[in-house]
Each structure stands twice: as structure tokens, then as C-alpha cells.
Design brief:
The chain contains 24 helices and 17 strands. The strands form 2 sheets. Strands 1-8-7-3-4-5-6-2 form an 8-stranded mixed sheet. The chain has an 8-stranded parallel beta barrel with strand order 10-11-12-13-14-15-16-17, surrounded by 5 helices. The protein starts with a helix and ends in an 8-residue tail after the last helix. Its cofactor is Mg(2+).
């Protein structure tokens, strides 16, 4: 929109704004920036549920219908997760999946279906209302907030049961989307709408609305109380996602102020985006390869537009999601071939399927585990499901003739497990050779370092593989003995903990001694606070969600190796994570305030 058109549009909105009073409402800044535009209000009413009785011989079918709807909603959440980076900000999505597996909710609903011969919709609504009444009467605000989560999720399940789909949102360009909450499907569609901002009545920085807004770089404020009562369609709104507030029906001078702040924010983004194709080379010549983490091939364009030098983590497990049959060798081959050709001449690192724990699939019979994060998952599961594993490996090896492909094994605990994984790769290669099928004979093979055991024995891995990749999301969880899905202990999830820093350094030094490159593909890689520390510790490559790449590359190009090493050495000497955080934040805020403003969530380094 040109300046004249923008002024005319805002002038009309000011005339409308005269009908109501200015109002400022606090929320939580979920995706940094400033957005200004007319409100596009999404106000959906509750699903209408009929109470009907079913025949007794249809009880089991009705229960299966319930479970199918629950699975469909969990898979819908999984699709959203597949497009997003790992890390603490995904906790709400994983928590939603856990709610949809809650045995109390499911068993009580099943009991009503069996004993009252109630249809699944009515039984689920009855049980949900009982739970909501208990949560609503709780003294603790945490439990009352869980009621909002439950209400939203059950609405989605009811829609699945009824075969209904919420009306698609279609906000005009330049508008601010205002809703009590948005579904994963809503947020996934927003990439094509070019909205100016996003405001929701519920949620925090870990809600799916916030996650998608950050991914799409849309200014967003969430958790705004009574937002639907405060905002009418067409109201002019300022989304101040730097300070965590919205201003409804602002005056002309206030709009001018925020326009200037928005323009400054956008100017910085445009500056670093213009340089997205430049390599990440420090001022003294250190070249850091910055790659993308992706889960589906459609994300490739975004990664390349943001300057990714290939793919450092392709999450192949999403080939197994939201489908009724196992992907075939041919499907793995075609997917990998497409990705390789699109990324040429850069390397693509395909992680073999990391299923289990927080990545369930209905294609496998996985037993309920008391602690799935430490159970049958990742490489352990692949070695058990050998035919499925070999089919994927054969597909990858065949695709390797079309471009530089690397295979990465996840959650490798020791050299014996690594040996079993390497044997499987050799078996897949032998099967292709025997069948006379063209395949790559010489590809790089690496491992993810995700446990303290793997980090402390990285020397042994470095002798046997071509690269190491540190997965800090699980490494932090396993090292600090905290469940990152558990909000009660999430404050203990500390990337700057002295133990984590020492383990990263241990792996980097092991790789250097054996001339094996060490990358880091956990959420830490995308956080501008940690760039100097990671590179100062000796990490040679970084892989992250695409939208973070321009900011991180710009920091590297503006830095010197000695400064990064000096900060890393100082941080290694401190005794606590809080002291390390303060030291790192002070150093990076002094040098890169705008970068932190763009790359950190509220309270994590922003103003």
C-alpha cells in the first residue's frame, strides 16, 4: 500500500473510530513487531450437539468413532508441529495432544456410551462439562486456564465427530485478525493472507497461534482478555507486539508514532533479507554453514529464500503422519529426490524416522509407556521395525544419485547402537546392489548427539561417522532431568546451564580432533542470544527453522572469532545458568539490540 492510499484508508478508519473510545489492553507479545490495520473479527459459536440414543450393538462402533475423531485432532496438531521448530515454544501443542489422550476423559466418555447408550457427541460433551465445572471452581489460575484449552480442543473433536469444518477465514491484506482462538488449520492458512497482525483472547507464547505467527513473522499479541467484547469489525487496531499490548481505536498522533516504529522494524528486516544470500562469514574469515530444519518439502522454498545453505535436518518421520498405510520405498525415494534436486548444489541431511515419544503414529502398535521420552523411540524403534527402516534407507540411497545426500541416525546411545544402525544401512545397500538398482555408494553418515552418554563418548562416534549433530532440545531434557512437556518444571529448561555448555564443548572438541564437522540443530541454534556462545565453543555449523536464518547470518557477518571465543570462555567459568544467561544477554544486547528484538520472545532478551 502506498503512502497516499494508506493515509486515506486510515483517515476513513479514524472517522469510524470516533464512534468509540480509545482502549488499551495488555496481553503477551508472542511474535515481535508492530502491526496496524482494521480488525477482521473471527467469532465462532459453540458446536450444537444433539442427544440421541444408539442401539446396543452399535456401542463399539460408536466408541471407535470417538477414538477416530480424537486421532484426527491429534494428527491435525501434529501437522502444525511438523512445520515448526522444536523447542520450549512447542509445549502447548504437545500438551494439547496429551489432553486428547487423557485416560480419565476417554474412559468416562466410553462409560457413558456403554451404560447410557449415548451418542459419542453427547457423551463427550457431558463429561467435558463436568470437568470444566471442576476446573472453573479451582483457586489456582493455572487450572482455570486449562479449562480454556479443554474447551477449544473438545470443540474440534466435536466438529470431527459431526463431520463439520469451521468456516475458513479469509482476512483481507493489511487487516488484523482478532479471535478468541484460532485452529491449527486457521493459522496454517494465514501465510497467503498477508495480514498485518494477530490478536487472540487466549494462549501464550507457546500457543499454536503464537508459534505460527513467529514462523510467518506476523506481529502477534495473545492472551488479551475480553478481546471480542472490546473490538468490533473494522476498528483500527495497533498490535504492539514489542511491549505486549493492543490499542483499539487509537488517535492520529498515536498511529503516526507506531507507523514510524513499524517502519523502523521493517527496515531492519528488509536490510538483513537483502543480504540473505551472502554466506555467514565472520569479519575475520570464519565461514559458518547455516542450514534449515524442515519437515515437509513445501518448506524448501521458504528455507532457500531465507538464505539456507542446504538442509541440516529433514524430519522424515512426518512421512508417517496422518495416513493409513506405511510409506513405501518408492515414496521415500521420490520425496528425497525432489528435495535434493530443489536444494542442489547444497547437501540435504535426512534424519531417519524419529517416531515414538512425542511423535506417535497410528501405523505402528506402540504400547503406552510410563516415560515415552526414554522408551521405544527413534533409532531403537527403527531397529525393531527393521523392514520399515530398510525401506526408508533404500529410498534414501536410491535418491542419493541425484544430489549430495546425508543420512543422520537419531538418539544414538552408544557405539553398539551405532553399529546396528550402520549395519542396517549396509544391508539396504546390499539389497539394492543385489537387485541391480542404482544407488549412491558414498554418502555421509552422521549421528545426533542427544544424550549425556552420547556427548561424553563423542570421541568414539567421531571415529566411525562423517559428522556429528547436537540436538540440544533432548540433550537439555536428558541432562537436566526435566520433562520439557511439564509446565511445572519448564523453568528448569536452561540452555545456559554449565553442564550443557560443557557437553557442547566436549562434542565440538571431539569432532575437531578427528576432523569431523559438528553442527547444532536444536532450538538454541535459532536464538540470537546464543550465537556467539555456540560458535565460541567450537560448533562449526548451525541448522534452524528458516525464518531465523537471516538474523543469525547477519550476526555472524558482524562478528569476530576472538570476541565469540572470549564470551564462551567467560561463560564456561560461571557457576549457574542464571549468571550465564545474564552475562550472555548483556553482551549480545550491547552489540545486537535489534537482532534480539527480532529473534527473542517477550522476556527473553527483547526490550
Amino acid at each position: 500500500m502506498n503512502d497516499g492510499a494508506e493515509s486515506a484508508a486510515f483517515s476513513g478508519l479514524f472517522r469510524q473510530a470516533d464512534l468509540g473510545l480509545r482502549r488499551e489492553i495488555d496481553g503477551a507479545a508472542a511474535s515481535p513487531g508492530v502491526g496496524i490495520g482494521p480488525a477482521y473479527v473471527v467469532d465462532r459459536r459453540r458446536v450444537h450437539v444433539l442427544h440421541r440414543h444408539i442401539e446396543r450393538d452399535l456401542v463399539e462402533a460408536e466408541i471407535e468413532r470417538l477414538h477416530e475423531a480424537l486421532r484426527a485432532c491429534r494428527q491435525q496438531i501434529e501437522v502444525v508441529k511438523s512445520r515448526l521448530p522444536h523447542g520450549e515454544h512447542r509445549q502447548i501443542l504437545k500438551a494439547q495432544q496429551m489432553i486428547l489422550r487423557d485416560p480419565d476423559l476417554i474412559q468416562r466418555t466410553e462409560t457413558l456410551i456403554r451404560e447410557e447408550l449415548a451418542n459419542a457427541e453427547w457423551a463427550l460433551t457431558t463429561v467435558t462439562d463436568q470437568i470444566l465445572e471442576v476446573l472453573g471452581n479451582a483457586d489456582d489460575n493455572y487450572f482455570r486456564e486449562r479449562g480454556s484449552d479443554l474447551t477449544y480442543l473438545i470443540e474440534n473433536v466435536l466438529q470431527a465427530l459431526l463431520g463439520e469444518h469451521g468456516d475458513e477465514i479469509d482476512p483481507p491484506p493489511g487487516s488484523v485478525v482478532v479471535a478468541q482462538d484460532l485452529s491449527p488449520a486457521d493459522t496454517a492458512r494465514m501465510h497467503r493472507c498477508q495480514v498485518a497482525g494477530l490478536v487472540t483472547g487466549v494462549g501464550g507464547k507457546t500457543s499454536h497461534s503464537a508459534i505460527m505467527a513467529r514462523s510467518l513473522q506476523i506481529p502477534a499479541v495473545v492472551g488479551v482478555d475480553d478481546v471480542l467484547a472490546a473490538v468490533d469489525a473494522g476498528d483500527l487496531i495497533v498490535v504492539d507486539a514489542v511491549r505486549g499490548r493492543i490499542i483499539v481505536r487509537p488517535g492520529p498522533e498515536e498511529v503516526a508514532h507506531f507507523q514510524a516504529e513499524r517502519d523502523r522494524h521493517l527496515a531492519f528486516e528488509q536490510k538483513i533479507r537483502k543480504e540473505h544470500a551472502f554466506p555467514a562469514v565472520s569479519q575475520d574469515g570464519l565461514h559458518v554453514r547455516v542450514r534449515a530444519n524442515i519437515a515437509i518439502s513445501e518448506e524448501l522454498d521458504l528455507a532457500l529464500r531465507h538464505g539456507a545453505e542446504g538442509v541440516g535436518l529433514y524430519r522424515s518421520e512426518y512421512m508417517f503422519m496422518n495416513r493409513d498405510t506405511l510409506p513405501s520405498e518408492e515414496e521415500h525415494y521420490r520425496m528425497a529426490k525432489h528435495v535434493l534436486r530443489r536444494c542442489a548444489p547444497y547437501t540435504v541431511v535426512f534424519r531417519t524416522f524419529d517416531l515414538g515419544a512425542d511423535k506417535p503414529t497410528k501405523l505402528l502398535e506402540l504400547e503406552e509407556e510410563r516415560n515415552p521420552a526414554m522408551g521405544m523411540r527413534s533409532l531403537r524403534l527403527a531397529l525393531r521395525e527393521r523392514d520399515m527402516f530398510l525401506a526408508q534407507l533404500r529410498g534414501f540411497l536410491r535418491a542419493g544419485v541425484h544430489g549430495p545426500l546425508a543420512i543422520m541416525l537419531p538418539l544414538v546411545g552408544g557405539v553398539d547402537e551405532l553399529g546396528a544402525g550402520l549395519d542396517a544401512i549396509e544391508e539396504a545397500r546390499d539389497q539394492l546392489a543385489t537387485a541391480g538398482v542404482a544407488h549412491a555408494d558414498d554418502i555421509d553418515i552422521g549421528v545426533m548427539i542427544e544424550t549425556p552418554a552420547a556427548a561424553l563418548t563423542a570421541e568414539h562416534f567421531a571415529r566411525r561417522v562423517d559428522f556429528l549433530s547436537i540436538g540440544t532440545n533432548d540433550l537439555i531434557q536428558y541432562t537436566l532431568a526435566i520433562d520439557r512437556e511439564n509446565e511445572a518444571v519448564s523453568y528448569l529448561y536452561q540452555p545456559m546451564h554449565p553442564a550443557i555448555l560443557r557437553l557442547i564443548k566436549e562434542v565440538a572438541e571431539a569432532g575437531a580432533r578427528h576432523h569431523v564437522p559438528v553442527s547444532l540443530c536444536g532450538e538454541m541454534a535459532a536464538d540470537p542470544r546464543y550465537t556467539w556462545v555456540l560458535l565460541g565453543l567450537g560448533v562449526a555449523e548451525l541448522s534452524m527453522h528458516p525464518s531465523a536464518i537471516p538474523v543469525i547470518k547477519h550476526i555472524i557477518r558482524s562478528s569476530k572469532t576472538d570476541d565469540m571465543k572470549e564470551l564462551a570462555e567467560r561463560v564456561l567459568k560461571v557457576d549457574s545458568a542464571s549468571e550465564a544467561d545474564e552475562m550472555v544477554l548483556a553482551a549480545m544486547r550491547a552489540r545486537f539490540p535489534e537482532h534480539l528484538r527480532h529473534g527473542c520472545s517477550e522476556g527473553e532478551g527483547g526490550p
